[in-house]
Specification:
By secondary structure, this protein is α+β, with helices and mostly antiparallel strands. It has 5 helices and 5 strands. It has helices spanning 4-19, 23-29, 77-84, 90-96, 105-111; strands spanning 33-39, 44-51, 54-62, 71-75, 100-103. Strands 3-2-1-4-5 form a 5-stranded mixed beta sheet. A hairpin with a 4-residue loop joins strand 1 and strand 2. Helix 1 runs parallel beside helix 3 (77-84).
Amino acid sequence: MATIDECRTALEKLAQNMRGADGDVREAVSLERTVSCRVTDLDVTFTGRMTGGAIVVDDVAPGPPAEKAQIRLTMTGDDLVAMVAGELNFAKAWGSGRVKLEAGFRDLLSLRKLL
């Protein structure tokens, strides 16, 4: 089972990857939105924002998020680490229910470019 530190490192790596994106992916990650990533097996939620083409993690708190973010991810820590490492395909994990993504319709349309 992934630790909180491993999950935070994975989110930092994701932010770094997003900063280096170009084309359609760069356009998709340029949204300015609040985000949360609920790690179910650790019972914690990372909260932050998408800004400047990357995710900035502001806080980690126990349990579900206190406020509803505009873009919400839910998954296990192992799935988060595997996804960022390129070992788990996001689209397949989302389609199978291993990863849950919730967002407004317009945001989902923009984020589909990441799939």
